[in-house]
Amino acid sequence: MCPSMKAASEKRTSVEKAPGKTKATIKDVAKLAGVSFKTVSRVINKEASVGPELQEKVMQAVKALNYQPNLSARLLRGAASSIGFIYDNPNSNYVIDMQRGILGECRRQGYELVIHPCDSKAPDIIDEVLNMVDRSQVGGLVLTPPMSEMPEVLSALGKRKIPFVRILSGSQAPDKKSPCIFIDDRTAAYKITQYLIDLGHKAIAFLGGEEAHKSSGERLEGYKAALKANKISMDKKLILPGEYSFESGVKRTRQLLASNLKPTAVFACNDEIAAGTLFAARIQGVDVPQQLSIVGFEDSPFSRQAWPNLTTAQQPNTTIAERATALLIESIRKDGRDVDSEGFYPQLIVRDSTCPAPSKR
């Protein structure tokens, strides 16, 4: 053992064996690291004013003493100790991925997580959100669609100066009201539709999600743009609005298969809808992909557990949630100053649920 490590070990032992100590304090960490307790506080709160070498020294002491920040003390000082996650989404896989990502980042940065499902259509939704913030005393909110795309909710939060980060659909940040994670659904949908066209498909059905979710509209616009670019006439009867759910996919696919439209491919707005389409096709004796190619969106477990596995657009929801939470915490610590938004660009993943159109074969 080198002299410096030996000294640190002896120092740690003296701290751990101090009489009356049952739990390491910030002063214990400061003593072991050989710095002031204010420096320890800055490192724990991820302040940029502390150099990397000093940060490493403090974090080694934190780990050695198994130090846990006192969230109650932080709250009494008026500092944020928790983050709120508000959502209204029927897609359980999406919600689970979001929770996993937000919780992981909260734990890394010493925050608690408060989860609040809601009904975005409720007449008192703004009061519900503001009351939740007051009751839980969260330092800021992670908002997902459709809550993140409701101007009245964002305005109410802004008036109360409640920090928030938005996860939303778009090719760029819509404004500078708060940091956001924007997801380029339109370009991804264009690429999906172009991929199907390149396989020879012309009768491509589009199964959308809830209109309240901007992602559904953005994906529809990408679909339309690809048809137009390839001079394929758009048949409005092949565009079926609905919900982001398995049941909605089943219902609309049965409707399609019972009609005279006879699409050779379906672009489903998410993997749950696509899985419902696959199920309905199987019940009707339609071979996938030989008679009907199916594409989903998000790369959720539905896409990998279905057989055949679904071609889809990969949207890393857990990573998106982690980055959104990191942006929110940075915004809280900087009081909203100089926090940039970030973009994600879903990528096409080709699997077994698609193949060339019958005319190409």
UniProtKB/TrEMBL annotation:
Keywords: DNA-binding, Transcription, Transcription regulation. Residues 24-78 form the HTH lacI-type domain. The keyword Transcription regulation applies. GO terms for molecular function: DNA-binding transcription factor activity; transcription cis-regulatory region binding. It holds the Pfam family Peripla_BP_3. It comes from the Bacteria. This is Transcriptional regulator, LacI family. It comes from Cellvibrio japonicus (strain Ueda107) (Pseudomonas fluorescens subsp. cellulosa).
